Amino acid sequence: MAEEIYVKLREFLDRLPGGFPAAESGRDIEYLKWMFTPEQAEVEVHLRAVPEPAASIARRCGESESETEKILESMVRKGLIMPIPAKEKTLYMVMQYMTGFGEQQLSYRLDSESAKLSDDYSEESGFLSAFPRQKQMRVVPVSKAVDALPAVATYDRLRDMIRRQDTIAVTPCPCRVGNEKQGQRCEHRIENELSFGFVANWRIDHGFGRRISLEDALKILDEAEEKAMVLAPVNTQEAIAMCLCGGCCCHWLRGLKMNERPADYVQSSFQARIDPDLCNVCGNCLERCQMEAISEKVGTMEVDLARCIGCGLCLSKCPTGAVSMVPRPGAREPSPTYLGMYARVAGERGLPLGKAEWLMNKTSFPAYVKQWKVLHRLHLAEPIIKVMARIGMV
Fold first, then answer.
1. For 209-235, what is each residue's pLDDT tens digit?
2. Average pLDDT, the chain
């Protein structure tokens, strides 16, 4: 029975937008057993992508409300599910594996054995190369590249976006934590994943991040740009969270790099161009590029546009001004909201939720939560959720 619930859990998680593919080796089940107890797995498969009280979840589980609530709270403490504070009772909702509950597991719970287990699962299941193609993260140019551009959309002006935030949190990078646990410490600071707004507040309140000042956040950004790290926010126009990714340690960059044409699988507004008349072949751009998109030709450096992800790291250390950033042909805008991105990924995987992308793009996560709180107070939420569940929308 214990084995069956983990198979059921894997199938349940794979129906969420980000997915959780199987691994023939069985590492998928082993990995889930490390993250979830059998009791937590039993409850997880009854959660929805909408906030619900423990009583509603308990009815689907066939357990008492008090026991279900106890298990839900244990999952909150592990960062497996999202708690939503409400006047009467806390509401709970499911999170997908990545980006989602996986970050808390990798940043805070790993030891050497579980770090290897996580890496093995990602490679054997194909998740390592598949995740970057979902474009849940995007690339924005470093500040020097942005400053050199004549026109940049608001969502690509990262520093301006950060300055508008009331709450900023920093969290250990899950990739770097996993590498360090396996004896592969790199030069980059462990603690440099940033989050904002409701995500930052949730992480701070539950011990998955610490509050930092605007000045501290900008210093982390300065250091990342100096050390040739790719700036990778969540692929939305609203501020959610961002990774600062090094080619030596980042699993997302590694998965992206595995593709023959990384540029096809990254959300980016720009690409690099090198003027051969200005290039002095110093090699700075080649050294800083994380995608092997630059090569040396006779008397100049050249950009392979199929591999360029538009990070601007090559421009920031060019002594002659030979590198410029130009608009990427056919570049899409990021989803307006996190929920819109969530629905887009679902649609691209053929999941029913994708049909609601247009609606989800009009709703911020805080507004979404507020709407469901009102529906619960009016006793309208449960019948709506039942209908949505029948058509696969939650």
1. 999 999 999 999 999 999 999 999 999
2. 95
The whole-angstrom separation of Cα 73 and Cα 79 is 10
Count other C-beta atoms under 10 Å from residue 81's C-beta. Answer: 21
Give dist(CA 322, CA 299) in Å, integer: 13
List where CATH 1.10.10.10 sits in the chain: 2-125
Q: How far apart are CA 101 and CA 78, in angstroms?
A: 9
The CA distance from 148 to 322, in Å, is: 12
- Residue 61 has which token pair? 């589980």
Helix (H) or strand (E) holding 178: helix 174-181
Q: Report the distance separating Cα 350 and Cα 305, nearest Å.
A: 29
The correct answer on CATH 1.10.10.10 for the domain covering 2-125 is yes
Rounded CA gap, 246 and 227, in Å?
A: 8
Degrees to nearest 5, angle at CA 359 with 357 and 361: 70
Per-residue model confidence as pLDDT tens digits over 242-267: 999 998 999 999 999 988 999 999 99
Q: What confidence score (pLDDT) does residue 374 get?
A: 94
Look up the pTM and report it.
0.94
- Which helix (H) or strand (E) element contains residue 195? strand 191-196
Give the contacts of 51 (CB within 8 A, at least 6 positions apart). 82, 84, 86, 91, 92, 93, 369, 372, 373, 376
Q: What values do phi and psi take at 46, rounded to 5?
A: -105, 5
CA nearest 102: which of 178, 26, 49, 169?
178
Cβ-contact 194, 155 below 8 angstroms: no
